[in-house]
């Protein structure tokens, strides 16, 4: 059994965690930056990078203390090396390199998306490859067949915005604040999902791709018409996103052979309507449905430590001059 220290700093969450190769989460610490970004209605890269610099060291110390461990007990250090906001990615990766060099431990450079993609196996040790993964976050909206560690077939992606981005922009348009997803979900609970006629871009098309730009424009028109309440727009928007996600996932299920489960990960998986509808879709296909707990769906370091553990077990470590990558498709 090995012990992995994971570091995450690719967006607006600074995090450190200690996870074992058999899936025990010994510690996970996280510092959000919502208050710092709220006045701007979105993540400001420079502010994010500075906040990571301040937060990361103390979080690592706290995680080690929580687990009753020191760096000497750690077998490898895993840090997010991209994709993400480059300033933040560099903070975490350089910190990981320094710790690896100082403590004489191997470094594992983790793709943040691989962290999300493998996190369901941390949540459910019985989950076997291959599984169909809907990865829905603020920066990504993809359907992947996860065939093994480092072995991913991308079946679909968004041709414009990510689903989480659509939630965030809708929240901004409706004056619901930041971060957008949870705010839209709360408002949607008070509205009528059938009140506003909104488009379902690409629904029914042959390839399982996503598109949310047209939906966003329609939300703006609905708001400016003055005909609808914020709650009704939020509810109708959420329903439209769910309808798109489900139709596209159903299409992908038709295209893949031998998937053992339907899995959802990424921040939008925190949305109850999304989870419940996907669960029903999995049941229709006689597939188990796996969704990590909410805290493991949004950005965190346990998923990075776990992806690091899976890579380390496969002998995949990285040299200390490995580059930070703002763009890095899986
Ligand atoms: O995975 P994540 O924490 O960060 C990225 O890697 O992007 O995902 C954050 C995204 C944001 O766009 C946020 O609005 C969305 O996930 N999100 C939600 C909910 N909670 C977070 N979207 C819809 N409903 C939610 N409850
Ligand atoms: Zn993420």
UniProtKB/TrEMBL annotation:
Cofactor detail note: Binds 1 Fe(2+) ion per subunit.
Binding residues annotated for substrate, in chain numbering: 135-139, 168, 181, 185, 271
Cofactors demanded by this protein: Fe(2+)
Binding site for Fe cation: 112, 116, 299
Keywords: Acyltransferase, Cytoplasm, Iron, Metal-binding, Transferase, tRNA processing
InterPro entries the record matches: ATPase_NBD, Gcp-like_dom, KAE1/TsaD, TsaD
Major localization class: cytoplasm
Family annotation (Pfam families): TsaD
SUPFAM superfamilies named among the record's database cross-references: Actin-like ATPase domain (SSF53067)
Enzyme class: transferase
Keyword DNA-binding found: no
GO MF annotation terms: tRNA N(6)-L-threonylcarbamoyladenine synthase activity
Ranges where the Gcp-like domain occurs: 25-306
Subcellular locations according to the entry: Cytoplasm
PANTHER family found in the cross-reference section: TRNA N6-ADENOSINE THREONYLCARBAMOYLTRANSFERASE, TRNA N6-ADENOSINE THREONYLCARBAMOYLTRANSFERASE, MITOCHONDRIAL
Similarity-based family: Belongs to the KAE1 / TsaD family.
Record's protein name: tRNA N6-adenosine threonylcarbamoyltransferase
Provenance organism: Sphingomonas naphthae
Gene from which the chain derives: tsaD
